Amino acid sequence: MKEKKKPDNLEYDVWNISKQFTIEKILRFMVWFDVYELMARFGSQVSSDEVPEEAVPFKRKEGIHRCINSLYFLISNSKVVIPQKRMKLYKEEIDFINKYISKTYSIKYDFILKKQNIIIHEKKFDLLLKYARRLYELILTELKKSGVLAWQKDNFNMDAIFEDFVKKA
To answer: What are the sequence ranges of the domains in the chain?
Structure first.
């Protein structure tokens, strides 16, 4: 086969966009998952937010939906590093969560006050968030194993580093 010669006036660069991809497509949704989980649990992202008491259930409902959506995007964007068999399992888990998310709250309309109220079913709500958190942690483990979140280096022994730390402490 004939080898192609590169023209003298052109420069060829190899672009590595893995860092940008990781930041844009994976790390962003990891951060959003945590932020929206806080919103789902407490009605706001930080304790200093002034959220009116009557708005808290609405914020919590919005938070759980956004939390699950960010988990969905994290899983979808991780398909390049997660084996297909496990990817299918994770997507089934997300579908399961989406199927039951509407069971974690009730929406009631008060015709006298002419306003909508949301009642959070705490046990179901908490159970669904715990389930989502466990799925999130499984995804993080997959990402760490693949080297996306942690730099994999030859001859790197975390146990030896930990033992050295314990000895020095």
So the answer is: 18-168
